[in-house]
Specification:
CATH superfamily of the domain at 14-279: ANL, N-terminal domain
Structural class: alpha/beta
Strand order of the largest sheet: 4-3-5-6-7
CATH architecture of the domain at 14-279: 3-Layer(aba) Sandwich
CATH class of the domain at 14-279: Alpha Beta
CATH topology of the domain at 14-279: Rossmann fold
Strand content: 15-25%
Shape: globular
Distance between the termini: 51 Å
Length: 657
């Protein structure tokens, strides 16, 4: 797309893209939101008006250049508009995770020095009020949903609608100042600040410029031939860089429509109604959807189960080849077409994937079996590799070159090099400006030439040029006998099974690998109901002998699979236990993006790890937990330690032969 001049100059900022869209795509739908079961929509021209009024309302409240504006809430058009309106004022939007506990939120608000906080609803307002006495820099709290807010002290609190209305009626007074500030924006102006997940410490504020966001959006859109007719569902956390690049960067670059679901509970229904053409989800979402499908099939009639299994086997065999345009004989194509009519089409429609042209997963490695399942159905699911510091894209899979064991080729505009120790480095137009108030971390992550250390280990395949990720560089190690230890490789294989939600593998520097496992309460609970097994809690179900035996069979199946890889065959699991509670971000065991904090788990559950290695048959423990209202408690449990059969390893030389 050629650069087009706008009243505020060239397309060198997100507000400039907005003005271009309001001119070129004035009547096209820019946003949809479902509220009270009804979809409401706004065109690009209407979105520009809403954002301008909000920006002028911010100016009326005294928003200055360089102010940090925190946005806390679910995906709603008004929250995206608040981010762009803040940019128009020369301020910096800082979206936060809406499910963050008060202490996490307090750290980010204090670190960025937010003067303004835009809250989605009463719950978010209450969290901000809880920390306001400690954080004296917060001057204005704005809220989008006014339910429950009538009796609050509104001295420094405003309904977002009223702010917008004040901006609308005062436009003669404030419009000139808004345009002046917007005209000052350029490629090097800060577009957004996003906080990292903080797997190894406190989250860091990643400063991303207009150059970072716009160049990355342009290059990635051209890579997948995205256009104005795309439909996306904005449901991922607004604080995550993936949502910002898809729902703001690419949406504004291409002019396509952003659809916001009514709630997390209605997300799947809303997904089916929208039927997006461009879709992104982390592996956990695809895993959950597959678990739901498998549970439903277990409840289906014998005939339906037989049909499903027959056509799924056919799809696994030839579906990816058909999707990639490879030769498939006529009879198989006819059988696949019948399967599309009977099974694949209805299933894709039920999942909301009937119109997906490009689908991506990233954030964590996805299990090969899960990945292949979706591609077998004819869904063009691909993998990408990225980071917040890269404005997402580092590597991605081109159409017809999709495999579960790589993350594709180098993204357009990106350079990648592999260090001697296997760590991946990159530089690109999307490379972040700095870590806010943290020059030491900036210098240790990005060198003067712009090369960024990813912390991941990997290598390029010499014949295809595809990048393969082994694991986090800090997590890759060696067993006591010198064999490679790569926990994520085994964990992803375990999580393929619908009744395993999470797994954490140990073994670095030890003589054998062991594991913690979380069951999936939905899947295992459904199994218990079908088999008339009563249980009163997660803990009771997780310790049920039949559940433990089922998990043991899964672990042994994974061991047989791992044994086929000569390089990683030493990662077979010898002993495991099923945890008495789910790993939880509120307890510090995972990040808000569902990444395991290995160091926290190793310290918190040291007694359980010791039992895995000292030959114990069981272990008693007491674990502190955090409830939804922030209260602390403790749960006691006695866990069984289970032995799993392993497969004799072949020497690497013999395996290669």
């Amino acid at each position: 797309m050629e650069a087009i001049t706008t009243p505020t100059g060239e397309l060198r900022s997100v507000p400039a893209l907005l003005r271009r869209n309001a001119l070129e795509f004035a009547g096209r739908t820019a946003y949809r939101e479902k509220e009270y079961g009804i979809w409401q929509s706004w065109t690009w021209a209407e979105a520009l008006a809403e954002i301008e009024w909000l920006a002028m309302g911010f100016l009326a409240l005294g928003m200055d250049r360089g102010d940090h504006v925190a946005i806390i809430g679910r995906n709603r058009p008004a929250h995206y508009w608040a981010m762009v309106a803040a940019q128009m004022c020369g301020a910096v939007p800082v979206p936060l995770y809406q499910d963050a506990v008060t202490e996490e939120m307090a750290y980010v608000l204090e670190h960025c020095g937010a003067r303004f906080v835009v809250c989605g609803d009463q719950e978010q307002v209450d969290k901000v009020i809880d920390v306001q006495e400690r954080l004296h820099q917060i001057e204005h709290v704005l809220y989008n949903d006014k339910r429950g807010m009538r009796k609050y002290d509104h001295t420094h609190m405003n309904w977002l609608h009223d702010v917008r209305e004040e901006g609308r009626v005062a436009h003669y007074r404030l419009e000139e100042e808004m345009h002046k500030r917007e005209a000052e924006l350029n490629y090097d102006s800060t577009c957004v600040m996003l906080y990292t997940s903080g797997t190894t410490g406190k989250p860091k504020g990643v400063v991303l410029s207009n150059r970072n966001i716009i160049e990355t959006s342009k290059n990635s859109s051209e890579f997948d031939r995205l256009g104005v007719k795309e439909e996306i569902l904005a449901y991922l956390p607004m604080a995550w860089v993936g949502d910002f690049i898809f729902s703001v960067g690419q949406a504004f670059w291409n002019g396509f429509c952003v659809n916001c679901p009514e709630s997390a509970e209605t997300m799947m229904t809303d997904l089916r109604e929208i039927a997006p053409t461009y879709y992104f989800a982390p592996p956990r979402v695809f895993e959950t959807q597959l678990t739901s499908v498998m549970i439903r099939m277990e409840d289906a009639s014998a005939v339906k189960r037989a049909l499903f299994r027959h056509y799924l086997a056919l799809a696994r065999r030839i579906g990816p080849a058909i999707l990639d345009g490879k030769p498939v004989n006529a009879i198989d194509r006819m059988r696949y077409a019948l399967g599309e009519f009977l099974i694949y089409g209805p299933l894709k429609n039920a999942l909301g994937f009937s119109k997906v042209r490009v689908g991506y997963t990233a954030g964590e490695a996805i299990g090969p079996e899960i990945f292949d399942f979706y591609r077998a159905l004819g869904i063009n699911l691909k993998q990408l590799y990225g980071q917040t510091e890269a404005s997402v894209f580092i590597a991605q899979q081109p159409d017809n070159e999709v495999r579960p064991d790589t993350v594709g080729v180098t993204s357009p505009g990106v350079e990648i090099r592999i260090a001697d120790n296997g760590e991946i480095f990159y530089r690109s137009p999307g490379t972040f400006v700095e870590y806010y108030k943290n020059p030491e971390s900036t210098a240790s992550t990005k060198n003067p030439e712009g090369w960024v250390a990813t912390g991941d280990a990997g290598f390029f395949e010499p014949d295809t040029g595809h990048l393969r990720i082994i694991d986090r560089a800090k997590d890759v190690g060696k067993m006591a006998d010198g064999q490679m230890f790569a926990p994520k490789y085994v964990e992803n294989k375990l999580k393929f099974y619908p009744d395993i939600l999470e797994a954490v593998v140990f073994g670095n520097g030890r003589e054998m690998c062991t594991a913690f496992i979380n069951i999936d309460l939905t899947a295992v609970g459904n199994w218990a109901e079908r088999n008339n097994i009563a249980y009163a809690s997660y803990q009771e179900l997780a310790g049920h002998p039949k559940v433990l035996e089922t998990i043991r069979t899964h672990v042994e199946e994974v061991n047989r699979s791992v044994a086929q890889d000569a390089m990683l065959s030493g990662c077979q699991i010898h002993r495991f236990l099923v945890l008495h509670k789910e790993l939880d971000a509120d307890d510090g065991e995972m990040t808000r993006t569902r990444k395991v904090r290995r160091s926290v788990i190793a310290e918190k559950y040291a007694d359980l790890i010791a039992a895995l290695y000292d030959g114990s048959d069981s272990v008693s423990t007491v674990t502190e937990v955090t409830y939804e209202d922030g209260r602390k408690g403790a749960i006691k449990a006695t866990l069984a330690v289970i032995d799993a059969a392993t497969v004799a390893q072949r020497p690497m030389k013999a395996a290669a032969e």
